[in-house]
Design a protein that fits this description.
Layout lengths: L1 H20 L2 H23 L2 H20 L3 H12 L1 H8 L1 H12 L2 H10 L4 H25 L3 E5 L6 H4 L3 E5 L3 H7 L10 E5 L2 E7 L15 H12 L3 E5 L6 E5 L2 E6 L1 H28 L9
Parallel strand pairs: 1-3
Antiparallel strand pairs: 1-5, 2-4, 3-4, 5-6, 6-7
Helix pairs in contact: 3-4, 7-12, 8-10, 8-12
């Protein structure tokens, strides 16, 4: 009994000593590592990486069995495999690593830093974006009546140069008539996506990545799958008009929301595109003035 009490007392003293030595630097260190582990866990859980991790764990178990069971051939093969583990992990998890880095780049901290060093006129940018929204809303109404499909991508922080390169450069103002004309089913650029950058039609006829998710409804066609895929690979806002039903949908962050009308489409695009710019502009201004943020408004 005395030995148990001595062990408990020794453990308590050790914890107390560690607590006395714990500094602000250590707290920051622990917080960053915790955030990284949480992000890694969430990334593995929400993607196909989870299956790869299970496979790697199985190989580790086999390696331990081979090592302690003195299975020379299996141990040699697995030892050679694990010597190149770092390169194999980078290759196998390339899509997930890229997605994670893009999410870091799209974070509020990164966006605030970019807004501080940015020189573009925020007021002018919001005006151009609103004009683009008005043009898209008008065009979707026209295409809805004509039962013609459309796939329109609003570029945000993630640059879509690779997507733009697959299409035809347009560089024109986003009027409703022009957008509708591009997606007219006899037009040469109708079968592809349109990219709107900085409030202007950047390119049309672009090839977008299809989603690899197996949870997408079978009734959705290629346009909707491309919209979801584009929103999974970037922070873009993607508007889809169904050729079969005339239904208007929006894809953001891998989620597809359907049954929009002119009013709800305009309100949603305003919130996602202009609202984000106003928030970033306000954060950048407060940061330059040295003023702390108050409570966020809903």
């Amino acid at each position: 009994m005395d030995a148990v009490m001595d062990n408990i007392a020794h453990l308590g003293q050790t914890v107390l000593n560690l607590a006395r030595q714990f500094s602000l630097k250590d707290a920051v260190d622990v917080a960053i590592v915790t955030m990284l582990l949480y992000g890694l866990t969430k990334l593995v859980r929400d993607t196909r990486a989870g299956q790869l991790v299970k496979g790697i764990i199985l190989l580790v178990v086999l390696f331990l069995v081979a090592y302690y069971g003195n299975l020379m051939m299996l141990n040699s093969i697995l030892a050679t495999f694990f010597q190149s583990a770092l390169f194999l992990v980078v290759i196998l998890f390339q899509p997930e690593i890229r997605n994670a880095l893009e999410q870091v780049g799209r974070s509020k901290v990164a966006h605030s830093l970019s807004s501080v060093v940015g020189t573009r006129d925020k007021g002018s940018g919001r005006t151009e974006t609103r004009q683009a929204i008005a043009g898209v809303v008008e065009a979707t109404a026209i295409l809805q009546q004509l039962r013609m499909g459309a796939l329109i991508v609003f570029e945000r922080q993630t640059r879509l140069g690779e997507i733009v390169a697959t299409g035809t450069l347009v560089d024109a103002g986003p009027s409703g008539q022009l957008i509708a004309n591009i997606f007219f089913n006899k037009a040469p650029l109708h079968d592809g996506g349109m990219v709107i950058r900085s409030g202007r039609i950047c390119a049309a006829g672009c090839i977008l990545p299809l989603t690899a998710s197996d949870t997408v409804s079978a009734e959705l066609g290629t346009r909707h799958r491309a919209a979801i895929g584009m929103s999974e690979n970037s922070d873009a806002v993607v508007v889809v008009v169904s050729e079969e039903t005339g239904q208007i949908s929006i894809a953001i962050g891998g989620r597809l929301t359907r049954n929009f009308n002119r009013l709800t489409l305009s309100e949603t695009l305003e919130k996602e595109l202009v609202g984000q710019q106003e928030s970033a502009g306000a954060s950048g201004l407060l940061g330059r003035l040295g003023i702390g943020r108050g409570k966020d408004r809903g």
